[in-house]
Write a structure and sequence with these properties.
With 462 residues, the chain is of the alpha+beta class. It contains 13 helices and six strands. 62% of the residues lie in helices and 8% in strands. The protein starts with a helix and ends in an 11-residue tail after the last helix.
Length: 462
């Protein structure tokens, strides 16, 4: 019995000793610790990768939205530059017609007067005068059909051409603000923008000012949307004086008239080639010829002149447009928001209008004269993307970004309906869901434009 108890005691003692040794070895054995650290590091790296991926998606969306805004702004400016060039080309066409019309009148008048003077000098003592009278008289008879055409059907044809060019210029000046706006809308949409519009808004009947009764109702709740401007988009053109088609105020006009006189001299015969006749014809082309052209063409012969020639804020605005562009990104209110939503449920926004679901971007396109001071005859207008606001520019203009936003809001709504309607028809998404998401961001833009007042917007590039 005692022997058995003693054996059991020895076994227990050995177990305790072995257990104690094993427990003591745990404190000294570090195998596997690196594996645990690697697992923790991998988890951290995986989380960082998710953050970078989501951030990259946001940055990509932001870049795409900015590209859409820039392409819309540049395209709008390019359309206006094209119109300015076409109007200048039409001025040159007008000037060419008027110069030809003036030259023929002046040279014909000078030649007839010289021939008459030679006939009056014809006598037995001056046979050369008699010869000039007879030869040039016969030439006058031969040229009679052309003279009749000039004072008849040719003049009427020139009149139609001048008036057609003048109507074309008026048409382009009135059409271009809407043409440029629609071009910006199309270019923005093709580059992924859901909404694209620009300030100043194009002229028309679309409501751009909050009615007084709505403003009064809002003021009862301490709100106001009455911040507006009275600016409308238009081309910086005016109709100049018809005298500029006659008086050689530019080197180009003088050279053109001189070239026409030289061509007329080279093709003329007998007395019409004489230096005194050519000089008198050139002078008469600028005086009597000009008056006769005005009697035929009237004010339609006047050129269209560019008006924005300085660097004032109003001149720069007349040559540029501030583009508001919006790119809908539903993941901003879905996956990405849920990934980083740490607020408890009771603090969730109550309505969809409080969610952000897209990217707003600004850009500004400008068309400008590439080379010195602009004139009515040189088609050297081109386009570029420029900073949204130069230092002090909006203050000098007497407007701010929030007022511009209010002015273009109806056009943005029109752009939104067109874009979402097209998306719904092509299976790109629900129409009402898009309206709800976009409306929420429109509220955000109201807050953003109020914060970007003229004290902080100076030098804003994008």
């Amino acid at each position: 019995m005692n022997a058995n108890l003693k054996a059991h005691s020895n076994i227990l003692a050995r177990l305790r000793s072995w257990t104690r040794q094993r427990l003591e070895s745990f404190n000294q054995d570090q195998s596997g610790a690196v594996a645990i650290l690697c697992l923790a590091a991998c988890m951290i790296l995986f989380m960082v990768a998710l953050v970078l991926y989501d951030t990259g998606k946001v940055a990509r969306n932001k870049i795409d939205a900015q590209n859409a805004a820039d392409s819309a702004a540049y395209s709008q400016a390019a359309v206006k530059a094209r119109t300015m060039n076409m109007v200048m080309y039409a001025n040159v066409a007008k000037r060419t017609i008027v110069s030809l019309h003036n030259t023929y009148f002046g040279m014909w008048t000078a030649w007839v007067a010289w021939t008459a003077s030679r006939c009056s000098s014809c006598n037995i003592y001056n046979p050369k005068a008699c010869y000039d009278c007879v030869i040039n008289g016969l030439l006058a008879i031969a040229e009679a059909p052309d003279t009749i055409k000039y004072f008849g059907s040719v003049g009427s044809r020139y009149e139609k051409e001048i008036k057609a060019l003048d109507k074309y210029q008026s048409y382009m000046a009135e059409l271009t603000p809407w043409w440029a706006w629609s071009e910006g809308l199309v270019r923005g949409s093709r580059n992924g923008a859901s909404i694209t519009s620009s300030f100043p808004p194009p002229p028309g009947l679309i409501l751009t000012k909050i009615p007084d009764w709505i403003e009064t109702a809002l003021q009862l709740f301490g709100k106001s949307l009455g911040n507006h401007t009275d600016m409308k988009d238009s081309m910086p053109l005016k109709k100049g004086s018809w005298l500029k088609m006659c008086v050689p105020t530019t080197a180009a006009a003088l050279l053109e008239t001189t070239a026409n006189v030289a061509i007329h001299k080279s093709r003329s015969k007998e007395g019409a080639k004489k230096g005194s006749v050519v000089a008198a014809g050139a002078a008469l082309a600028m005086t009597g010829g000009c008056l006769y052209s005005y009697s035929q063409f009237g004010g339609a012969m006047a050129p269209r002149e560019p008006t924005a020639k300085g660097d004032s804020a109003s001149a720069l605005m007349s040559k540029s447009n501030v583009v508001f562009s919006y790119k809908s990104t539903p993941q901003m209110r879905g996956t990405l928001r849920n990934n980083y939503n740490i607020l408890p449920g009771e603090f969730e926004p109550a309505t969809a209008l409080q969610y952000g679901s897209g990217q707003w971007n600004l850009s500004r396109g400008e068309f400008f004269f590439d080379g010195g001071s602009p004139d009515p005859w040189t088609p050297k207008w081109t386009a570029k993307v420029r900073p949204v606001a130069l230092p002090g520019e909006f203050q000098e203009l007497g407007a701010d970004l929030n007022a511009m936003y209010h002015d273009v809001a109806p056009y943005m709504a029109l752009s939104m309906l067109l874009s979402l309607g097209q998306s719904a028809l092509t299976g790109g998404g629900g129409f009402m869901d898009g309206v709800s998401a976009t409306a929420g961001d429109a509220v955000f833009l109201e807050k953003a434009t109020r914060s970007l007042d003229n004290s902080v917007i100076n030098g804003l590039n994008k």
